[in-house]
Design goal:
The structure is a single chain. The protein is mainly beta. It has a five-stranded antiparallel sheet with strand order 2-17-15-5-6, with no helix packed on it. A hairpin with a 6-residue loop joins strand 5 and strand 6. It is elongated.
Amino acid sequence: MDIQPYTSTETLAVGRPWLMSMLGIEANQSVTLDLTAFSETLHWTEASKYQPDRKLKSGIPLGKNTTTGLYEPYAALTNEVQTLTVTGAPDGGTFTITWSGQTTGAIAYNATAAQVQTALEALSNIAPGDVVVTGAAGGPWTLTWGGTQLGEDVAAPTTTESFTGGTTPDITVATVTAGGAATASDGTEVFAGFLFTEVSYNPASVKAAAPLMVHGQIDVAKLPVAFDPSDLPAGSNSQFVYKV
């Protein structure tokens, strides 16, 4: 039998595309996470028959809940959430969206959320990551703002319709959540650091130990959650250098 040694090498970039470098020695703090405070897709991916554990993404900004002593997603700011709803049951035609002085190309009345998002990102004043559009084909579509609009009171868009069929078809625009200052007051509004590694855990678990990165150099655009270091409140961890 010919047995050969096996050697593997892990770099800081593996599983951590947002991490540019550590500052000083690698001295992460061991903390306990409140897993019930994290949400699917944004923070973790679901288990499967081939991968029985859920997996929290590395790079999630964290804050400490001063009541429980556990760490949760950093909640300093509220992102603006708006909805676009087609009314009057049109069966054809298009519409455009105007935001901050710029207007999209024509969008089909029954467009998918991805098509609406693509139309918005084609505007020069909306970068990828500034808005996420969800919803069914034909709407209602939900616009959740982040990126450069993280925590901002975002002006509502307007629409111009060229619909056919239906009864007085139109689009209504509503603000579901106004963006702005922190709504949390439990300590999670103070930024503590980033989740340093991916964390796998059983779906039945409510807590998990994890390493909190307390200093380093970060590529903000590659974090799994929109994050604007210029909005950090007083008392937050400031031991980071950011590439924005």
